[in-house]
Specification:
- By secondary structure, this protein is an alpha+beta fold.
- It has a single domain, classed as Glutaredoxin (3-Layer(aba) Sandwich), CATH 3.40.30.
- Helices cover 49% and strands 9% of the residues.
- The protein is built from nine helices and four strands.
- The protein has helices spanning 8-13, 37-51, 80-87, 92-106, 124-154, 163-173, 177-185, 190-203, 225-236; strands at residues 26-32, 59-65, 210-213, 217-220.
- The longest helix has 31 residues, at 124-154.
- The chain starts with 7 loop residues before the first helix and ends in an 11-residue tail after the last helix.
Length: 247
């Protein structure tokens, strides 16, 4: 797996200001989807790992867009359970069993997922607003926007591909309301999202969440805070290798 070189990876990563050259600094790039429960869990576990690390103030996290289903229809009202039942040719009880796995695993880390409320959604516009968060307020605001979308989708049953819903959620997360309206009315940050996804293809990412620390050490999957902490430590030590995959 190549995590270096001047390709789409540079375009995606250079959309954020790098501080990895600073002594003891760790810059983590995370590819994730707004409608991915494992990504929600991965975000929370990454935050826990950072809080427990030797230099939490020196760790910067930038999120990059990844669409698990870019062809998903907009605002159909279909529940995730109904979609899972159709996809895996099972009944609603079977679909609920599938959906409950990340929900159960996330509870000890404070992640609340209500599998009965989730609506299937196209995440492209939500990703554009996550990119707006990075542009408007840096990594902190970007993380706040992403967190608000996760909570809305997984806990509250909000349609995060509905324009009015995105407008309201963006404002609640701290985005400028006029900028949100302008972005949703046009195609601003669409190129940003596509650059992130092109970089994921270049790297060879086939599942999310996917973490890269200081462009050197990679980790795939929603691992425990302890394992993600090893990623941070490896970056601090200047290691150049990929860690294990899987949740």
């Amino acid at each position: 797996m190549n995590v270096g070189g001047r390709t789409n990876l540079d375009v995606a990563m250079n959309q954020a200001t790098s501080n990895a050259a600073t002594s003891n600094a760790v810059e983590i790039d995370v590819w994730a989807d707004v409608v991915c429960p494992w990504c929600y869990l991965g975000k929370r576990r990454l935050e826990l790992a950072i809080a427990e690390s030797a230099h939490p103030a020196e760790v910067t996290v930038t999120y990059h867009a990844y669409e698990l289903d870019p062809k998903a229809a907009h605002s159909t009202g279909e529940t995730v359970l109904a979609w899972l039942a159709q996809r895996y040719r099972t009944d609603l009880d079977g679909a609920r069993e599938i959906a409950e796995r990340p929900a159960v695993m996330g509870r000890p880390d404070g992640v609340h997922i209500d599998v009965d409320k989730q609506l299937r959604a196209n995440s492209f516009d939500a990703h554009r607003l996550v990119a707006l968060g990075l542009a408007q307020g840096g990594p902190a605001l970007q993380a706040a926007v992403l967190e608000r979308f996760y909570s809305a989708h997984f806990s509250e049953g909000k349609a995060i591909d509905d324009v009015e819903t995105l407008q309201r959620l963006g404002a609640e997360a701290g985005l400028d309301g006029r900028r949100v309206s302008a972005v949703l009315a046009g195609d601003e940050f669409a190129d940003h999202v596509r650059a992130d996804e092109a970089a994921a293809t270049d790297i060879g990412i086939t599942g999310v969440p996917f973490f890269i620390a200081n462009r050197r050490v990679a980790l795939s999957g929603a691992h425990t805070p302890e394992v993600i902490g090893q990623l941070i430590e490896s970056a601090l030590n200047g290691d150049h290798e990929s860690m294990s995959a899987g949740a």
